[in-house]
Design a protein that fits this description.
Among the domains are: 113 residues, Nuclear Transport Factor 2, Chain: A; 106 residues, Roll (Nuclear Transport Factor 2, Chain: A). 33% of the residues lie in helices and 24% in strands. It has 9 helices and 14 strands. A hairpin with a 4-residue loop joins strand 5 and strand 6. One of its GO terms (molecular function) is cysteine-type endopeptidase inhibitor activity. Keywords: Membrane, Protease inhibitor, Thiol protease inhibitor, Transmembrane, Transmembrane helix.
């Protein structure tokens, strides 16, 4: 799952940050350019809101040549890239055929990623414009080496440091080791805590809450002919409600939108149901969408009518006219979770007379739960409940494997913390040096 991946990646990043060239916290170190970091950069570049006010330059990227990182209250990243000047943020990101220049220039792009996952472009400079091209804060370096011969210590090949140069003591060396152990111990314990909360294997399908962002994804995908794969053909629908969403992390994101909507004539009527289409008799569909944000790819790969065993087995019960207290509780919970109005409809739905529970043709009132079931014969509250039960009920083998991994990581964390205590005690004990007794005057 995303949480597992972030936990393991966070652990790996912590280990790498501690061991790469022996950097201390706040030092710069080399990092591997991977898909998530590439996505972070190219996604940040295309939005004006992500730029610091002082950054006026806009570039698109043809190649990322190298990457360095710095642990702060969040992360600083320094991307050394090849790319081209562009006029607007919308043309940034990865260079396309339309904005690729004949001779790309070398650029340093500094990006800050906060602990709240918000990203800011801190600077964009031509290669070599600042501090010899590294665009780092003065004196940061790529790491701090302790002892004789360290860059900047004033020593060479173990000779005495120059006057005024600082020669680290054994206490300082030990305290640096303590800092490393604290980082590793904290990372191990945080990883264990994260793994206990998320046990789905990478690449598995998981449930996602319905929100405005997900509405934008499915509506944008359905509203343009350019987004449909050839296999979909001319089949088009508009969406009244999203009952649930499943997603899968791949090289991008796969989504399965379980929706209530209607078949429409063409793409002009697709997307969110509106006008006369909003009054249609809805059916249940599954819309498969693939999204890769860093390449601005959005594809509708399949649209199918949804037929579930659950709908078939509950059809007889739906016509009985009786709703159990248990199902009423499920409906109430679904209304809150799916952000519906009190009648189980879209929050923007308007009714003649202010309520859908009065039948003007007969002059009779309709029971609330009977109305909701008539509007949602597939009973999405039961589907979502079943999906949640399956998601929270891993196999015994998976649970055992997870438990073993968590135990191992927690053991490593505890040992690291014990190591911190031992090193700190020894460092304090070795703080003061005493001359041998036989050196004192008698």
């Amino acid at each position: 799952s995303d949480k597992n991946k972030r936990s393991v990646c966070g652990w790996a990043a912590a280990v790498a940050a501690v061991h790469a060239a022996d950097p201390v916290p706040g030092g710069w170190s080399s990092a591997k350019v991977d898909d998530p970091l590439t996505k972070m950069l190219t996604t940040a570049l295309i939005k004006d809101a992500n730029y610091a006010a002082s950054v006026k330059t806009r570039v698109c990227v043809t190649k990322i040549n190298s990457l360095e990182q710095q642990v702060v209250a969040g992360m600083n990243y320094l991307f050394s890239v090849s790319g081209c000047d562009v006029k607007a943020s919308a043309d940034s990101g990865m260079c396309s055929d339309s904005n690729k220049c004949a001779t790309p220039k070398e650029w340093d792009i500094k990006v800050f990623s906060g602990i709240d996952n918000k990203t800011q472009i801190a600077s964009i400079e031509p290669k070599g414009a600042n501090s010899g091209g590294n665009n780092k804060p003065a004196g940061s370096g790529s790491g701090v080496m302790l002892g004789a011969g360290a860059p900047g210590s004033g020593s060479k090949n173990g000779t005495k440091p120059a006057d005024g140069a600082h020669n680290p003591t054994r206490v300082e060396v030990m305290m640096t080791m303590t800092t490393k152990l604290m980082v590793l111990g904290a990372a191990a314990l945080l990883t264990a805590a994260s793994v206990t909360l998320a046990d789905s294997p990478p690449g598995s399908w998981q449930h996602k809450d319905v929100n405005d962002e997900m509405w934008d994804v499915v509506v944008d995908a359905l509203s343009s002919d350019a987004h449909y794969k050839a296999e979909v053909g001319a089949f088009r629908i508009c969406v009244r409600d999203i009952t649930s969403i499943d997603y899968q992390v791949v090289s991008g994101m796969n989504y399965k939108f379980h929706v209530r909507g209607c078949e429409v004539q063409n793409t002009d009527h697709a997307g969110r149901c509106r006008g006369d289409d909003a009054n249609c008799a809805p059916e249940s569909f599954v819309v498969a969408v693939y999204e890769q944000s860093w390449t601005q790819t959005l594809e509708v790969s399949e649209i199918s009518r949804e037929t579930t065993a659950l709908a078939a087995t509950t059809s007889a019960y739906a016509t009985s006219g009786e709703v159990s207290d248990e199902e009423k509780a499920l409906i109430d919970a679904w209304i809150v979770k799916a952000h519906r109005n009190k009648y189980g409809d879209d929050p923007d739905m308007y009714y003649t007379g202010g309520t859908p529970l009065f039948d003007e043709s007969t002059g009779e009132n309709i029971d609330l739960y009977t109305y909701i079931i008539e509007q949602h014969p597939d009973r999405p509250w039961q589907t979502v409940t079943a999906a949640n039960l399956m998601a929270t009920g891993p196999s015994t083998a998976a649970t055992h494997s997870q438990s073993s991994f968590v135990s191992t990581v927690m053991y490593m964390g505890v040992m690291a913390v014990i190591g911190v205590a031992v090193v700190t005690f020894r460092a304090r004990r070795g703080r003061y040096a005493y001359n041998a007794i036989d050196n004192h005057d008698t």
